[in-house]
Design goal:
Blueprint lengths: L5 H53 L9 H10 L3 H39 L1 H15 L3 H12 L3 H24 L4 H9 L4 H12 L1 H27 L2 H11 L3 H33 L8
């Protein structure tokens, strides 16, 4: 009897293994995305409940404090709702652009500094106290100085929003880069890899969870930084619109702007969670059973 060669059965086995990996990846992504969506829905319910509770407990005047139905009418059903909504959305896109540039600048700068800290302890000992000293100064106090130095244009807004992003990202990224398995780093060193190669092959993949943790913190922070810069410096975007609405007693516009920027922040948080699910399911460590 002629025996079946193992090489004949291997393509089917490889296909089965590949299908199993794809199925496992899809299940992991679905689980992570499901948890993210659940947290977003729960956050929305909590925010609305706290909103109603805040108005009820403090007994605020409806002329100043708007409830969810009043905001809905302002944006969608009032006579001037179309114009009001258009103005707020235009300011929102401007603010999101400012926040995106600030987030990218702050994250790239934090990653570069974190890599320098990991590669050289002397650099960390020299620069970390300076970074912590700058972190202790409120960004509201720094904004006028930054405006004088960098101007009131897009570059100045990017710097202000980037500073808000930089410090929490730096701490998380340094922790993530140093959380690489020592055995893997030692193996690279044993094979003659340079410190930079070990960082690229071992530390950076291990830092992916920390990178996404900093992203979840920094995306809302970048929006806050952009709003602050618009409020105090540029005279553009949703931050400036909120200031103008408050000065003209357009309290519906103020509350509608807060709701719109909050919805945008929650949506971006969900997007970060989805990207995190896909990337970590493919490249990151396996989640623990408790997650």
């Amino acid at each position: 009897m002629t025996s079946v060669s193992p090489a004949v059965a291997s393509p089917a086995s490889a296909a089965d293994a590949g299908a199993g990996r794809v199925a496992a990846l899809a299940a992991t992504v679905a689980g992570r995305v499901g948890r993210t969506l659940l947290s977003v829905v729960a956050s929305a319910v909590v925010i609305i409940a706290l909103w109603y509770a805040f108005l009820k407990v403090f007994g605020l005047d409806p002329l100043v404090a708007k409830d969810p139905p009043a905001v809905w009418r302002y944006l969608f059903t009032d006579d001037g709702a179309g114009t009001q909504r258009s103005v707020i959305l235009h300011g929102l896109w401007h603010t999101l652009r400012d926040a995106a540039l600030g987030y990218l600048a702050g994250t790239v700068a934090a990653l570069a500094v974190a890599i320098a800290f990991v590669l050289s302890r002397s650099v960390e000992r020299t620069l970390m106290p300076i970074a912590m000293l700058l972190r202790s100064v409120p960004i509201v106090g720094l904004t006028p100085v930054l405006t004088l130095v960098f101007g009131r244009g897009l570059f100045g807004v990017t710097v202000i929003a980037g500073i808000v992003v930089f410090f929490p990202s730096l701490v998380n990224l340094v922790f993530g880069l140093r959380s690489a398995p020592p055995a893997a780093a030692d193996l690279c060193t044993a094979y003659g890899a340079s410190a930079f190669t070990t960082l690229r092959k071992v530390a950076l993949p291990s830092a992916l969870p920390s990178l996404f943790v900093s992203a979840r913190i920094s995306v809302p922070g970048a929006i806050i930084g952009a709003l602050l810069a618009e409020w105090l410096a540029t005279g553009q975007g949703l931050g400036y619109y909120m200031q103008q609405a408050q000065q003209t007693f357009d309290y519906g516009g103020v509350w509608a702007s807060v709701v719109v920027i909050t919805v945008a922040s929650v949506a971006l948080y969900a997007v970060v969670g989805f990207v995190e699910a896909v990337v970590l399911a493919r490249y990151g460590p396996a989640p623990s059973r408790g997650q």
